[in-house]
Design a protein that fits this description.
- Chain B: It is found in: Cell membrane.
- Chain B: Keywords: Cell membrane, Membrane, Transmembrane, Transmembrane helix, Transport.
- Chain B: InterPro entries: Bact_Polyamine_Transport, MetI-like, MetI-like_sf.
- The complex is a heterodimer of chains A (278) and B (258).
- Chain A has 278 residues and is an all-alpha fold.
- Chain A has one domain: MetI-like (MetI-like fold), CATH 1.10.3720.10.
- In chain A, a hairpin with a 2-residue loop joins strand 3 and strand 4.
- In chain A, helix 3 packs across helix 9 and helix 8 packs antiparallel against helix 9.
- The longest helix of chain A has 32 residues.
- The two termini of chain A are 28 Å apart.
- Chain B has 258 residues and is mainly alpha-helical.
- Chain B is built from 11 helices and no strands.
- Chain B is globular, with a radius of gyration of 22 Å.
- Classes of the chains: A mainly alpha (278), B mainly alpha (258).
- Chains A and B meet through helix 1, helix 3, helix 4, helix 5 and helix 7 of A and helix 1, helix 3, helix 4, helix 5 and helix 6 of B.
């Protein structure tokens, strides 16, 4: 009975919706409600490849995908490096202090995602806090165009996704067998050598998981680019959002989602394997 | 060195949030401009019907979604931890983990198309709103609960349940009197996580919601991309206060559960 309920939840709320997305990519836009003709109707197959043609028509969507993957990689790499440093700090604190430090990592997140981003807007915009301070100090005469840029976008991305890297890394580093590092040190390895030859290899699976845990959702991010990024810097999440909400071209949104899923299939499978291996 | 980097990282995480909170107490109408100490924006927040309405809806949807997610996640985690190999198990595992890793824009579109398809076939749901957001957030949350429950079940000493069974308890009684008390911290943590996810979700809710059912994050997103008011700062302070309180409660629960 438990297994029946579990299958029902998975098929109803996960498998079927994904199957519908893939199918809807072969639908045809329409002016009705809903604004789409499904690929399978009463008379059987009536689908089209229009939406997929749109994606491959010119290099716009290809560029969009590449830009998204690049942003996700850079975000994940920065989160990994910063997250690793923070996780080392937390894991080497006294065990009694560790929950408090983890709480300090998580607590800012409870202000809410949107409000946290508005904090960055307030800091970065032309009459914002950073420009105000710099102008009062006389460092600059005109406000710097900080907001709505790739830099602001990256800052917001790293800020939002950092805990996703800190948590798995802290869990892995706090559990590691310290005697291995002591043994290496006793045998004459310098701290940098111990780190590179013992600590880092031990943490590699967790580091890979942390990278993917940031990379995968970051590749489809919508809200952060919308609030902090340059308006002309098109990303795949925004493209799907725009096709759905603005253009109301559901097949195009579905085809783009399918393409994004296909691109993420390998990272997702890799992540699931890593998290099962734990 | 390690401590310096950790401090720097925490500073990076906290700096914008602290500034946001500090300017909630500024009298100035312009956000992030100091105009002397004042609590007027907390008053303005308390009188802002639209924010309060959205917050109330978010709270109800979040609690309902967390509860359903905990129930379904318990079933998923149970099957993953206890049912050994069965036909379709790899597919089961992949589907159970999928909501954790799918980009939210894909999840949102997928669930919306599910509801539209259901409506075309059965007439239900006749319109999208709180109920569809509830189901969508439950689908997101159950995957997180499943991970926690599975880990907890895997770490359990099987002899405790065996002892209960040997003493004649039915499997339901064993579950209720032995297993459930042992895994309830993971259920509580999972509920809280699912609640948080629901309370903070913009993208999925934007897809599956309809007119008249605007959750707090969706409302804030639609307002704040146009420009912010100090009321938003005051709201951040209130949320941070609630979160600290919830954190303290969770801490106490953890302490008691060992």
């Amino acid at each position: 009975m438990t297994r029946g309920l579990a299958w029902l939840a998975l098929l109803g709320l996960v498998a079927t919706p994904l199957a519908i997305v893939i199918g809807m990519g072969f639908g045809t836009p329409d002016s009705g409600v809903p604004p789409v003709i499904p690929p399978i109707g009463r008379d059987g197959w009536q689908g089209s490849l229009e939406a997929w043609g749109l994606i491959f028509e010119d290099s716009f969507y290809l560029d969009t995908f590449l830009r998204s993957l690049r942003l996700a990689s850079v975000t994940a790499a920065l989160c990994l490096v910063l997250g690793f440093a923070m996780a080392m700090g937390i894991a080497s604190a006294p065990p009694g202090r560790q929950p408090l430090l983890l709480a300090l990592v998580l607590l800012p997140f409870w202000t809410g995602f949107v409000l946290r981003l508005t904090a960055w807007v307030g800091l970065l915009r032309d009459n914002g806090w950073i420009n105000g301070v710099l102008m009062q100090l006389g460092v600059i005469a005109e406000p710097l165009p900080l907001l709505y840029s790739d830099g602001a976008l990256l800052l917001g991305m790293v800020h939002s996704y950092l805990p996703f890297a800190v948590l798995p890394l802290t869990a892995a580093l706090a559990k590691r067998d310290l005697s291995l590092e002591e043994a290496a040190a006793d045998l004459g390895a310098r701290p940098a050598t111990v780190f590179a030859t013992v600590t880092l290899p031990l943490a590699a699976p967790a580091a890979a998981a942390a990278f993917l845990l940031v990379f995968i959702p970051a590749a489809g991010e919508v809200v952060i680019p919308e609030m902090l990024g340059a308006p002309d810097s098109m990303l795949i999440g925004r493209a799907i959002w725009g096709e759905f909400f603005q253009t109301r071209d559901w097949p195009a949104a579905a085809a783009l989602s399918t393409a994004l899923l296909a691109l993420l299939l390998v990272p997702i499978a890799l992540y699931q394997r890593l998290s099962v291996a734990k | 060195m390690r401590r310096a980097l950790l401090t720097l990282g925490l500073l990076f995480l906290w700096a914008p949030v602290l500034l946001l909170a500090a300017y909630a107490f500024s009298d100035s109408r312009t956000p992030f401009e100091w105009g002397g100490f004042s609590l007027r924006w907390f008053g303005a927040l308390a009188r802002n019907e639209r924010i309060l309405e959205a917050a109330w809806l978010s709270l109800r949807v979040g609690m309902a979604a967390a509860s359903l997610a905990t129930l379904l996640g318990l079933a998923l985690g149970w099957v993953l931890a206890r049912h050994g190999p069965f036909v379709g198990r790899p597919v089961f595992g992949a589907l159970a983990g999928a909501p954790l890793v799918l980009p939210e824009v894909v999840t949102g579109l997928a669930l919306l198309l599910l509801f539209v398809g259901l409506q075309a076939l059965t007439g239900w749901p006749s319109q999208r709103g709180a109920v569809t957001v509830w189901l969508a957030h439950s689908a997101l949350g159950m995957a997180y609960v499943a991970v926690l429950v599975q880990a907890r079940l895997a770490a359990l000493d099987p002899r405790l349940e065996e002892a209960a069974a040997d003493l004649g308890a039915t499997s339901f009684v064993t579950f209720r009197t032995v297993t459930l008390p042992l895994i309830w911290p993971s259920l509580a943590a999972g509920w809280l996580l699912a609640f948080t996810l629901s309370l903070d979700d913009v993208v999925v809710a934007s897809f599956v919601s309809g007119p008249g059912a605007t959750t707090l994050p969706v409302y804030l997103f639609s307002q704040l991309r146009l420009g912010m008011t100090p009321e938003a700062n005051a709201l951040a302070v209130v949320l941070l206060g609630f979160a600290s309180l919830a954190g303290a409660v969770a801490w106490a629960i953890r302490g008691r559960a060992g």
